[in-house]
Amino acid sequence: MTCQTLESNSFSTQSKARAEIFSRYEFRFQLPRLVHNWFVRRKIRALGDRDDHILDDIGVRRYEVQWAARLPLTVNAAIALNDRAKRRRQREGF
After folding, report:
1. pTM
2. Helical pair 24-47 and 13-21, crossing angle rounded to 10 deg
3. Cα(46)–Cα(40) distance, rounded to whole angstroms?
4. For residue 75, what are the CA distances in angstroms to 8, 12, 28, 41, 69?
5. Cβ pair 60, 43 in contact under 8 A
6. How many CB atoms lie under 10 A from the CB of residue 77?
7. Nearest to 41 by CA among 14, 73, 19, 82
8. By mean pLDDT, which of 10-14, 24-28, 52-56, 71-75 is the weakest?
């Protein structure tokens, strides 16, 4: 193996993906979305402080809120929570 092959193999696919996402030119376009998702995440975490009957009125379960709060910042937790709760309600027949 050549030195170049070793160097190219030493970078993991995940590292390359991160480098692409946060490249110099794309980062400024990603930053507003990440900040927005961070604020949404704070609101989702605040839902976790509510009683179960309040969450039930909203249409979500506590485990769904906890799941959404752990999602990466690249994902809008409110949209993901809504989608997951909607799928659960469809399975339950609501």
Report:
1. 0.67
2. 100
3. 10
4. 29, 22, 17, 10, 10
5. no
6. 24
7. 73
8. 10-14
